[in-house]
Structure formats: C-alpha cells, structure tokens
Amino acid sequence: MSEKLDGTVALVTGASSGIGQATALRLAGHGAAVAIVARRRDRLDELAVRIKEDGGRALVIEADITDRDQVTGAVETMIQELGRLDTLVNNAGVMLLGPIVGAPLEEWQRMVNLNVLGLLYCTHAALPHLLAAAEGDPRSVADVVNVSSTAGRVARLNSGVYNATKFGVVAFSESLRQEVTARHVRVSIIEPGATATELASHNRLVVLEEMAKNFGGIELMASEDIADAIVYVVTRPRHVAVNEMLIRPTEQER
Ligand SMILES: NC(=O)c1ccc[n+]([C@@H]2O[C@H](COP(=O)([O-])OP(=O)(O)OC[C@H]3O[C@@H](n4cnc5c(N)ncnc54)[C@H](OP(=O)(O)O)[C@@H]3O)[C@@H](O)[C@H]2O)c1
Predict the structure, then answer these.
(1) Residues annotated as part of the active site
(2) Does residue 12 have its Cβ closer than 6 Å to ligand 1?
(3) How far separated are the first and last CA of the chain, in Å rounded?
(4) CA 223 – CA 18 distance, rounded (Å)
(5) 3-state helix/strand/coil string of the chain
(6) CA–CA separation, 207 and 216 (whole Å)
(7) Distance CA 234, CA 41 (A)
(8) Is ligand 1 within 6 A of the CB of residue 194?
(9) Environment class of residue 57 by beta-carbon count within 10 Å: exposed (0-12), middle (13-18) or buried (19+)?
(10) Which atom of ligand 1 is nearest to the CA of 115?
(11) Which residues contact 37 (CB under 8 A, 6 or more apart)?
(12) pLDDT value at position 214?
C-alpha cells in the first residue's frame, strides 16, 4: 500500500457503482479515509465492508446530491466523522441520449440537475474544507477531481444535452482552477471514453439499440482503468497539477 494518501480524507460521489465505486476502493487502498456518497444505501454498505476488509476506512453517506440541503448535510457529516477533506471526486452522473427534437424534458432535467447542479453543490460545500486542508499537514495540497467525459470535448449527434452538461463541467473546472490553484487546491478534469458501467442502462430501449451500433464492437474500459487515472492525479507531488486527462478505449475512434 502506498503511503501517499495516509492521513487524508476523500469524498466520492456516485460511489455505489461503476467508476465511483472503483475510485473509492483505490483511494482507500492508498490510505485515504473515504466518504462514499450515493442514494443506494445497500450498495454503499457493501462497499464499506469491502474497504474495511481490505484494512481501509469508509463512511457511508446516503444522499441525493441534486438536493442542496442533502449535500450540505453530507459534507457536515463527513467533517464530524472524519474531521477534514482533502480530495473531492465529483463523479456522480447520468447520461440520457437521443435526438433533441421531441426529447423527454424530464431526461434533460435529470442530467442538468445531477451532472451540473449536483457537482456545483458538492464543490461549493467542499471548498472551504479543501482550502483549509491545503494549508497544512499532511500534504499541503488538496484536490477537486471532476469526472467529465469525451462528451465534454466532442459534441456528437444524439448527445446534445449530455454534451452541454459535460462541456459545462469542463468550463466550470477551468475557471475554478484559476481561482484556487495558487492556494494549492488543484482542479482536474477526467474525461473517460466508453467504460463498462451501469451508465448506459438508464436509457430508453431505442437509444440503447443505437448505442449498441456505435460501441457494440469495441473493447470497453473497466471502471478500474479510470480509477487508476484518478489516483494518479491525486498522488502527484504538491507542485504538479494534472489539469486534464482524456482516456479512451484503444478501439474507440471518436
Ligand atoms: N461509463 C462511461 O462510459 C462514462 C464515460 C464518460 C464519462 N462517464 C462519467 O462517469 C461518471 C460515473 O458514471 P459511471 O459510468 O460509473 O455510471 P454508473 O455506474 O451509473 O454510476 C453513476 C453513479 O451516480 C450515482 N448517482 C446517480 N444519481 C445520483 C444522485 N441524485 N445523487 C447521488 N448520486 C447519484 C449512482 O448512485 P445511486 O443510483 O445509488 O444514487 C451511481 O453511483 C458519470 O459522471 C459519467 O457521466 C462515464
């Protein structure tokens, strides 16, 4: 086990499955105490058991991060229980694809509420604690890692509102980076390509069929591939900030 995150605390949103779950496991394996946040408590409880069995420390926080009061409460609980915050991984997200014409507006609301507003609420609540952590032991640096997507770099047909949310994450991240980097809060954007998780499963059947045509033939990445990238970012020395990582499956062309 690396010593690099010993004595630090991380908060991972969307830790009940996929990239968030893998990231929480990896961060705990590197010595961080991890607050794991999502709505499915049973999945978080199972993850906490795994982390503890591996010798790590986990705090389960059941919260819907589209509700700003629940976000405030989650961060307060984390500070009460774990005492500090060094690493915020804004990972929770939803991807609902399809044409813009005639799209169910409820799908757009879900994406904007979670991918944009949820991420903003978490960042707002966490920043005072991250700035405080960056001022002292053990590392004198803190991290915000925002999980965007290749969809935050390249707009595609049938991905308009998901693109809008992830482009928004990229813009917000760069502005925040400029604001806090001199105070040693690093802001990083992770941009995964197609990764085998539950993400696509929330789409309508007609959209799932279209996605199968685009990505059906390629070897997808695993959540652990992205978790490795996140751990790389947050374990750099204090003077090194990895601002952006675009990671695609080798066979993904666009
Ligand atoms: N998989 C890919 O190909 C891919 C590619 C590029 C980017 N990404 C991004 O990676 C991130 C993680 O996605 P994933 O692929 O790991 O998908 P996933 O397995 O579906 O994970 C999404 C996570 O978000 C949580 N979540 C959803 N709504 C929430 C809410 N209102 N409050 C709190 N948590 C909520 C879910 O937990 P609960 O349902 O328990 O709340 C779940 O843990 C997303 O931001 C996604 O856009 C994924």
Answers:
(1) 162
(2) no
(3) 36
(4) 6
(5) CCCCCCCCEEEEECCCCHHHHHHHHHHHHCCCEEEEEECCHHHHHHHHHHHHHCCCEEEEEECCCCCHHHHHHHHHHHHHHHCCCCEEEECCCCCCCCCCCCCCHHHHHHHHHHHHHHHHHHHHHHHHHHHHHCCCCCCCCEEEEEECCHHHCCCCCCCHHHHHHHHHHHHHHHHHHHHHHHHCEEEEEEEECCECCCHHHHCCHHHHHHHHHHHCCCCCECHHHHHHHHHHHHCCCCCCCCCEEEECCCCCCC
(6) 13
(7) 27
(8) yes
(9) middle
(10) 45
(11) 11, 12, 13, 14, 15, 44, 61, 62, 63, 65, 74, 92
(12) 76
Give residue 217's pLDDT. 85
pLDDT of residue 216: 75
Q: pLDDT at position 3, please?
A: 45
Q: Which atom of ligand 1 approaches the CA of 66 most closely?
A: 31
d(CA 14, CA 90): 8
Query: What value does the CA radius of gyration of the chain take, rounded to a whole number of Å?
Result: 17
Return the pLDDT at 2: 45
Distance, CA 200 to ligand 1 centroid (Å)?
10
Over the range 112-150, which residues count as b (16 or more CB within 10 Å of their CB) and which as e?
bbbbbbbbbbbbebbbebbeebbeeeebebbbbbbbbbb
Successive 10-residue mean pLDDT values, the chain, 254 residues: 80 98 98 98 98 98 98 98 98 98 98 98 98 96 98 97 98 98 98 97 92 84 98 97 98 90
Tokens matching residue 51 = 């982390």
